[in-house]
Amino acid sequence: MTAPTRAMRGHGGWALPLRILQDGGLLIVLIVLLAMITGHVQPRFYSRLNMLNMLREAAYLAIVSLGQMLVMIAGGFDLSVGVVSALASVVAASLMAMLYAGGGDVTVTMILWPVLAALAAGAAVGLANGFCVSVLDLSPFMTTLAMTSVVAGGTLYYTQGIPIYGLPERFGEIFGRGSFLHVPASVMVALVFLALICLVQRTTPLGRHIYAVGSKARIAALSGVRPVPILMLVYGAAGLLAACMGLLVTARIGSGQASIGASLVIESISAAVIGGVPLRGGSGRAERVVLAAIFLTVVSNSMNLLRIDSKLQTLVQGSVVIIAIALERAFARRRQS
Q1: CA–CA separation, 247 vs 245, rounded Å?
Q2: Residue 204: CB partners within 8 Å, gap ≥ 6?
């Protein structure tokens, strides 16, 4: 009897259920169970308003987490996603307020150019991170941590901690409170990014190269894969996605703020890890990371509805991440066996 056959018989009837759990089924089960428990205790959980709020919050986290996932698959980290979201918010709000100050009808230019400038600013920060990590060979942790201080200091100095108002109402109506086929605009944006990244991961050489760089950069280089442009690309994408999230939140709250995204770093890394992206890189799927973002959003929403103390909420969120990492390790050992 061959070793694979013995392994299959050893798993017995548990082989298929374990495979389903590994492929994201566990997250779906947890989301459904948590929703049922919360809805039973607090019926407001199933209200239309709460569901829409959860969808928006999950979309915001999913967008940033997808960028974080790309960086982690390539073997790095991006601790600057939170301040990049704030930078995009401040840049877009400042330009919109300046263009809209004269009054009159809102034109496409008043919204389009500030949005493009904010996205460019986010991508520029990401490319700077990628340059330092790939070309200068600096530590991803220290590079993005230092970038966090630089960007946060700049945005806080510019705004003096004061929100920027005077945005066109049309901006909020489209991107903040708007919907398409009764689906919030932020959710549609998240779905578009999810589809694009899934397409890249599953069908393009670029997706395979990202996995290769995260697995073994030197071996990938010997195979003809150039790590420098790949790392520049994933860090730039992470900055772009973080900026997009900052724009969506700005449209929703109606002002630019330097405090947007304060908790995004730990939340995005948590979503990536819970979604199955190993800390060492080399693997990970976009759809599982989005499921993890939904799960974290449901956990947070449930605790708020059940009026759990904010200090205990932090404790619970940290415990969830630890348990998720432990489960991922267990599944990884089972896959290896």
Answers
A1: 5
A2: none
**pLDDT, tens digit only, all 337 positions of the chain:** 444 444 444 445 555 455 555 556 778 888 999 999 999 999 999 999 999 999 999 999 999 999 999 999 999 989 999 999 999 999 999 999 988 776 666 678 889 999 999 999 999 999 999 999 999 999 999 999 999 999 999 999 999 989 999 888 888 888 888 888 788 999 999 999 999 999 999 999 999 999 989 887 667 766 778 889 999 999 999 999 999 999 999 999 999 999 898 888 989 998 998 888 888 888 889 999 999 999 999 999 999 998 888 878 888 878 877 877 777 677 667 766 6
Tokens (6 digits) for 80: 């600057």
Structural domains in the chain plus CATH codes? 52-336 (1.10.3470)
Lookup: tokens for 256 = 């630019």
Return the structure tokens found at 61: 């986290």
Q: Which regions of 161-272 does DSSP assign to beta strands (E)?
A: 179-180, 183-184
CA distance 33 to 17: 17
The answer for residues whose C-beta is within 8 angstroms of residue 133's C-beta and 6 or more apart is 76, 139, 140, 143, 231, 235
* Structure tokens, 155: 């945005």
Asked if 90 and 215 touch (Cβ cutoff 8 Å), the reply is no
> What angle do helix axes 264-274 and 48-73 make, rounded to 10 degrees?
80
pTM of the shown model: 0.89
Q: First CA to last CA across the chain, in angstroms?
A: 16
Contact 294, 58 (CB under 8 A): yes
d(CA 30, CA 299): 10
Give dist(CA 132, CA 110) in Å, integer: 34
